[in-house]
Design a protein that fits this description.
Length: about 270
């Protein structure tokens, strides 16, 4: 074992484990995600939200190398990017430094399903290419519940996640996990239908933004990218009792005091 440490959640008992050499931390993957262009639909929506004065605190869950987080900070959002990969966070922070945006973009290493963040803290939540990495429905639901907990009432949520239409209809999920499939990358990942996405988010406290529809991007012919569902939701005024109870049962990981980038690069 060697390389940089990363954290994974055990799908069985939800323990936080330290692993090494995360696939997300390899120099090639970090370089690829460092040159990914931002999501143009997200940027337009985020710019409009700022103009409408919905607030300025934005959480980018699984921010990677900052392909969205950096331009969002440039738009004027105060962004907190969280991710499990130190090298991804370093790349995001480097880009923020190069662009003079360090006062607008902070990064923190944390798992999507245990956000070390107080309730009702953010005016806008971005979950772009992250919830599809859940390796169990437990992890997926915990991640969505955490997003609802840290969003303030009325905060928008921008979601970009894998669609089940990636696979032919008879494709089998892993046993006991109807939404988790290994066929795309060899690793367990979460694939949903549009109806499932809407329903799961609704249960957690997010409703689809009125007069918007979910966009489905078909799978690339190369097969290198899965089909994608993209949509805009909003945190309901009050969270379902179940979500509040679960959040209380599983308080955020003891990552505090907050471990910002400068602390963990010297590990
Ligand atoms: C596909 S990349 C998406 C990055 C960025 N949001 C984008 O769209 O370019 C997924 C990111 O999620 C991070 N990640 C994977 N599992 C995670 C988890 N359980 N909690 C937080 N971040 C995670 C990876 O390190 C990686 O940077």
């Amino acid at each position: 074992m060697g390389g940089k440490p990363f954290f994974l959640r055990d799908p069985e008992d939800n323990r936080l484990e330290v692993g090494f050499d995360s696939p997300w931390s390899s120099p090639e993957v970090v370089a690829r995600f460092s040159s990914t262009p931002p999501n143009a639909v997200l940027m337009r929506f985020a710019a409009r939200q700022l103009q409408q004065g919905v607030g300025h605190r934005l959480l980018d869950i699984g921010c990677g190398a900052g392909c969205n987080a950096v331009p969002l900070a440039r738009l004027g959002w105060d962004v907190l990017g969280i991710d499990l990969s130190g090298p991804m966070l370093e790349a995001a922070d480097r880009r923020a430094q190069e662009q003079g945006l360090t006062d607008r973009l902070r990064v923190q290493r944390a798992p999507m399903d245990r956000l070390p963040i107080a309730d009702d803290s953010f005016d806008f939540i971005v979950a772009h290419g992250i919830w599809n990495l859940a390796r169990s429905s437990h992890e997926f639901l915990a991640a969505v519940r955490e997003a609802a907990r840290v969003a303030r009432s009325g905060a928008p949520l921008f979601v970009y996640t894998f669609s089940l239409s990636t696979f032919p209809p008879d494709t089998k999920p892993i046993e006991g996990e109807p939404s988790i499939f290994t066929q795309f990358s060899g690793r367990p990942q979460c694939f949903l239908t549009e109806a499932q996405l809407i329903e799961e988010l609704h249960h957690a406290g997010f409703d689809q933004e009125p007069e918007t529809s979910i966009t489905e991007y078909p799978q690339l012919a190369t097969g290198k990218r899965p089909a994608i569902l993209e949509g805009i939701f909003r945190r309901r005024e009050s969270l379902p009792v179940r979500v509040l109870a679960e959040a209380e049962e599983a308080p955020p990981e003891p990552f505090s005091p907050v471990c910002y980038l400068k602390e963990f690069t010297h590990e």
